[in-house]
Amino acid sequence: MSAKSVASTTPLLARPLLWGAAWFIAWIGARVVLESANVPVWGRIAAALAPTPIAAAALVTIVRGARELDELEKRIQLEALAIAFVLAVLLIMTLGLMELAVTLNRDDWSYRHVWAMLPAMYFAGLAFARRRYS
């Protein structure tokens, strides 16, 4: 079955890229609301929580898709995630220790920014794993 026929038979809400895009849009929307000074506290809380159910749906869709992968692709994905996890722990540990040593700029090294580095770590792990198994 070709990629085109698989995509056409996959329900729209079961596509991980669709959910990922919705998650990103919700995150951008939340940031816009949270950076506005005239939003009441309840509105700020609602905006901060709004991306969460969309992110959960994206993650569930990704996990369901992972269950349909062949054994080699599952192994590649597992290795990519293992590499990303180790890199994330290393980054968080290093930042925690650096924070004890010096004052880090919150505009560059807060958790708001560090989480965005995690997908890059996954894709680096994926590139490494794919090269290893090719």
What this model shows, in words?
- The chain has 2 domains: 1-68; 70-134.
- Helix 2 packs antiparallel against helix 3 and helix 5 crosses helix 8.
- By secondary structure, it is mostly helical.
- It is 80% helix and 0% strand.
- The model has no long low-confidence stretch (mean pLDDT 87).
Q: Element order, helices and strands?
A: HHHHHHHH
How many beta-strand elements?
0
Radius of gyration from the CA trace? 18 Å
* Low-confidence residue ranges: none
Distance between the termini: 22 Å
Tally of structural domains: 2
Specify the structural class. mainly alpha
Arithmetic mean of pLDDT: 87
- DSSP helix fraction: over 70%
Number of helices: 8
Beta-strand residue percentage: under 5%
Overall outline: flat
Biggest sheet character: none
Attribute tags:
single chain; 134 residues; mainly alpha; flat
What's a quick, concise take on this entry?
The protein has 134 residues and is mostly helical. It contains 8 helices and no strands. It folds into 2 domains: 68 residues; 65 residues.
Write the layout of secondary structure elements.
Elements: H1 3-9, H2 16-34, H3 41-49, H4 51-67, H5 71-101, H6 106-109, H7 111-114, H8 118-133
